[in-house]
Amino acid sequence: MILQHAPSLMRLDIRGDQYDVELTDPDDRRTLCALTVLDALTPDRLASLERFWSGLAGKRVPADQRVTRQRRARARLMLRAIDGDAAQATYRAIALQLYPQHPTEPGDWVGSPVRETVIRLARDGRVLVGGGYLDLMRRPRRSRG
């Protein structure tokens, strides 16, 4: 939680401990410091910090390994599906836009796998917009139970 913010100073409260963080000009040649919380998301934070450092140092920024090409493509389809849903398009009309290579006749629509896919995309898209997008940025983990 950020308790206080000034142009060059921020006070953070992390589990009751307060930290003063000075913000410097990244073009300045002084050493920068990064403060991170050590918890279950530490690997994600460190990967992000490495990408940030690479960009800051003028190096090639490594690809973000948390979101695969398939997950990005599916997220794009989910957002398109809920845009169509928000515009009150039918699932069949959405399917024709998302999958024009798989046109479905009205009589075959009820049993169509494309129909089921579009329904799932719209359902999962609503979750994504409702805050589930945060899960996209986390590495998949096996439960340790």
Keywords:
145 residues, mainly alpha, three-stranded antiparallel sheet, 4 helices, elongated
Q: Looking across the biggest beta sheet, what order are the strands in?
A: 1-2-3
Secondary structure class reads mainly alpha
- Encode the helix/strand succession as letters: EEEHHHH
- Describe the main β-sheet briefly: 3 strands, antiparallel
Helix percentage range: 40-55%
User: What is the overall shape?
Assistant: elongated
Uncertain ranges: none
Give the amount of beta strand, in percent: 5-15%
Report the radius of gyration as a whole number of Å. Answer: 22 Å
* Span of the ends, CA to CA: 30 Å
Count of alpha and pi helical runs: 4
- Count the beta strands: 3
Mean pLDDT: 83
Topology at a glance:
Blueprint: E1 2-5, E2 9-14, E3 17-22, H1 42-56, H2 69-86, H3 91-98, H4 113-136
Antiparallel strand pairs: 1-2, 2-3
How would you characterize this protein structure?
This protein has 145 residues and is mainly α. It has a domain at 69-136. Helices cover 45% and strands 11% of the residues. A 3-stranded antiparallel sheet has the order 1-2-3, with no helix packed on it. Helix 2 (69-86) runs antiparallel to helix 3 (91-98), helix 2 (69-86) packs across helix 4 (113-136) and helix 3 (91-98) packs across helix 4 (113-136). The longest helix is centred in the last third of the chain and has 24 residues, at 113-136. It is elongated. The relative contact order is 0.10. The mean pLDDT is 83.
Summarize the structure.
The chain is mainly alpha-helical. It is 45% helix and 11% strand.
